[in-house]
Specification:
Helices cover 52% and strands 0% of the residues. It has 4 helices and no strands. The longest helix has 16 residues. The termini are far apart. One of its GO terms (cellular component) is synaptic cleft. This is Synaptic plasticity regulator PANTS. Belongs to the UPF0545 family.
Length: 106
């Protein structure tokens, strides 16, 4: 028995996949997703990831499926463009006092 941490080859703990699946199936999340996107979310991938993780813990199989799923999820998150243009530095007048209480000139 070693006293060091146990090395895992899965990206997450299996309980994380189950928690994500339960959240995905929750009434509030389904309502919000339907309101925002016009369709109920597909939670099947979270369930498959959980089952693959449990399979990996039992006999160290299904590692490739989990890694592929995580890579796909990260790629989907990074494909969106930001809403605002990021600044390279502060505005030129950042040190001036704000005009609180003064009406703006229109």
């Amino acid at each position: 028995a070693s006293n060091g941490p146990v090395w895992r080859n899965t990206p997450r703990v299996c309980e994380d996949y189950w928690s994500e699946f339960r959240h995905c199936k929750s009434f509030w999340n389904r309502f919000h997703h339907y309101y925002a996107f016009g369709a109920a979310p597909s939670c099947q991938q979270w369930k498959e990831d959980y089952n693959n993780c449990v399979e990996w813990e039992k006999n160290r199989s299904a590692t490739e499926a989990l890694q592929t799923s995580e890579r796909k999820r990260v790629a989907e998150q990074t494909k969106f463009t930001p809403l605002w243009k990021l600044r390279q530095g502060p505005p030129k007048d950042w040190h001036l006092p704000l005009n609180h209480g003064k009406p703006e000139d229109s």
